[in-house]
Amino acid sequence: MSGKGPFGRIDWISVFLYLLLVFIGWINIYSTSLTDADSSIFDFSTLYGKQLFFFGLAILGIILVLFVESSFFERFASIFYMVSIVLLLGLFVFGKTIAGATSWYDLGFFNLQPSELAKMTTALALAKFLSDIQTDIKTKKHQMYALVIILLPALLILPQPDPGSALIYFSLFFVLFREGFPLYYLGILLVMVILFATTLMFGTVWVTIGLIILALLIYTFKKASVKIPVLPVVGVIIVSVLFSLSVKLVYDHVFEQRHRDRFALWLSLEKDEKKLEEIRKTIGYNTYQSEKAIESGGFFGKGFLEGTRTKGDFVPEQHTDYIFSSVGEEWGFLGTVTVILLFSIFFLRLIHLAERQKSDFSRMYGYGVISILVFHYFINIGMVIGLLPTIGVPLPFFSYGGSGLIFFSMLLFIFLKLDSNRLKDGI
């Protein structure tokens, strides 16, 4: 859609879907946090009142984005990225610890989580680097630079410890693959995931034995005409064993006990039935209650403010990471399907916008936005319904939280601003 001024050229379909998702999210925050003592939706001492305040700040951020020249974001992308890295480093000295993670700055009226800002700035910096005329993503040197841009903030976030937020940065690999990153890196990522899981389940010794047996089988059954050098295979086995050893090191010394318990529950690592049952009642309690809340909603749901598990606080953190469970209980199967369809339409619309970009920077940033949002969405839903372990990943535009709502909004609207500039230039 085109028109005059910074608002007239914006894609209003995306804006409408954004506002609808924020509104439905706020309705569910209201439902999960309302008490008999509350009287006004503008009571900023309540969670739903604070979320309205955060939305107001998000609107101010959006207006600022829309009134800034599009070229500003590309020109200063590297500076934004460095600022976010400095903020992440500052957490080790000035950070505030909440729920076991030192991930926030206490600003008095507001807790700032720089990892949310860093998602946006990393997407900008990656798009800036990849779109540079001197960058050739098919060369090893530039591939390494791109990996450093993605992994540096993740490595700073991991020891907070916040493995959930660190994991999100890996979504930006989809941008690399979209722009011609060699696909064998995707194979390496899949192998790393398999090695991570098998190391936790069976240990490094059995992983090593398995790799040796696999190599022997390959050499035994390969065709005589196929030549496979021995040294590269040995090198792959050595690197895999070293990675397996690092998995154990990270698992024991970087992850906290609550993280280890979640993996133990998800991968059935704990063999002691009594200990496993204890984990289910503690670490697995959220997921269990979330599943029961969704199941109790049936097809049509119990109705707005009628969720007994929601009202009884059966699901901890239901206004943040587990907010989707309140949708299932109060709005039922129809409600959950509606929310999933809205997110799906929203993502498809953003993909359409990204594909029509003529500017390399705008297209790459657009896919960065899509990757981050989709990764959040799938991990959060999978976590709530028990397919994935609980790792503290919010549902974009839905979950309670100031940093999340503000920076998710700015992340999106920077892309919409870039897209509107395409229309302004008549491209």
Automatic annotation (TrEMBL):
Q: Name one GO biological process term.
A: cell division
Topologically, how does it sit relative to the membrane?
Answer: Multi-pass membrane protein
* Transmembrane parts of this sequence: 12-31, 51-68, 80-105, 142-159, 166-185, 191-218, 230-251, 331-352, 364-391, 397-416
A GO CC annotation given for this chain: cell division site
Which GO terms fall under molecular function for this chain's record?
Answer: lipid-linked peptidoglycan transporter activity
Compartments in which it is found: Membrane
Transmembrane found in the keyword field? yes
Give the primary localization class: membrane
InterPro entries given for it? FtsW/RodA (IPR001182)
List UniProt keywords, sorted A-Z: Cell shape, Membrane, Transmembrane, Transmembrane helix
Give a Pfam family name.
FTSW_RODA_SPOVE
Q: What is this protein called?
A: Rod shape determining protein RodA
Species of the source? Flagellimonas taeanensis
